[in-house]
What we know:
By secondary structure, the protein is of the alpha/beta class. The protein has ten helices and 13 strands.
Amino acid sequence: MRLFDQEDNYFGIDLGSNSIKLAQVRELHGSPSLITYGDIETPANMLSSDSEIDQNRIADLIKQLADDARVTSKNVVAGLPASATYTSVIKVPKLKDAELAQSIRFQADKYIPMAIDQVKLDWLVVGEDEENDEQEVLLVAAPISTATKYLNILQKAGFELLALEINPLAQARSLISQKDPDHCVVILDMGVNNTDLSVIDKGVPRLVRSISVGARTFRRMISQNLGVDDTQADQFMKKFGMMEGKLDNQVVRSMKPLVDNLIEETKKSVSFYQEKSNDRKVERVIITGGTTALPELPMYLANNIGLTVEIGNPWQNVSYPSEIQQQLAGLALNYATALGLALRNFV
Ligand SMILES: Nc1ncnc2c1ncn2[C@@H]1O[C@H](COP(=O)(O)OP(=O)(O)OP(=O)(O)O)[C@@H](O)[C@H]1O
Ligand SMILES: [Mg+2]
């Protein structure tokens, strides 16, 4: 298993805290065509659990999901959330593959703020700096414990894990039009516990971080401020979101400091990247993840983030039967990662 790999026949799987999603594509007349997709709810707190029983439960769910979706491969590529990885683009002298591997391993502890003997390390050459005779390398580190857990779960489900890939790389493939891929954008993936932020420049995640704002943090704040239980808080969050004039503005007032924090962090990351990369300009923000479905949240982000905000469409780079167009449109927020993983041989 590698963090980056090539294999013809496989499907992509996104193990999310709220739901597990899968997608598979195949080549049709030289371009990707959707074969199947599907999702299944993840029982609360199960993904973060290290207990064997919970991991068996997840494996059973994956088996059921893959059966229902009738995937045609035993091979799978899985995504890793930004919160579970450390990603950086580094510059190293131009070297042959073997020498490069040695050089990166040797220097890795300089770049990665984790104990090197406890991480799985992989890299991809993403650019060249002709002037200085250097190359740019995307370095990804994931705790061995996380990689092993994913491997075990998928093995128990009866699949071979070909590779683990960081979610932002997958999302870049599905959310950026491959007809015109050289843009510089921010992707915000708003999930349950976190929002994963990535600056994607020419298809490559150049800055990746995780911000602890998500559906669960909203719910907790609503529950505290309104004195209601989690279920009620969840209902209020989904019904009112950032809408003004509802329940004496108690819901929007609970969520606002968290959303404002996310906006501030996004602005900081944009400025940081623009300064670091000299002349590159972040053009827009693409939002994805189920949490962006909260009422008025996209509008609030659009009005305050200082950049154009657009809701990501992960289906733009694949062909599919026109009869399922409506169905896919309804799932757009949830499939950016799974589909991007499925597209890794095409983009
Ligand atoms: N289409 C939707 N409409 C409204 N809410 C949604 C929708 N899809 C998901 N949600 C809600 O959005 C939140 C995050 O959903 P999402 O599917 O992005 O989570 P996940 O990918 O499983 O989690 P994570 O990425 O954090 O591991 C959940 O609270 C979920 O209930
Ligand atoms: Mg997710």
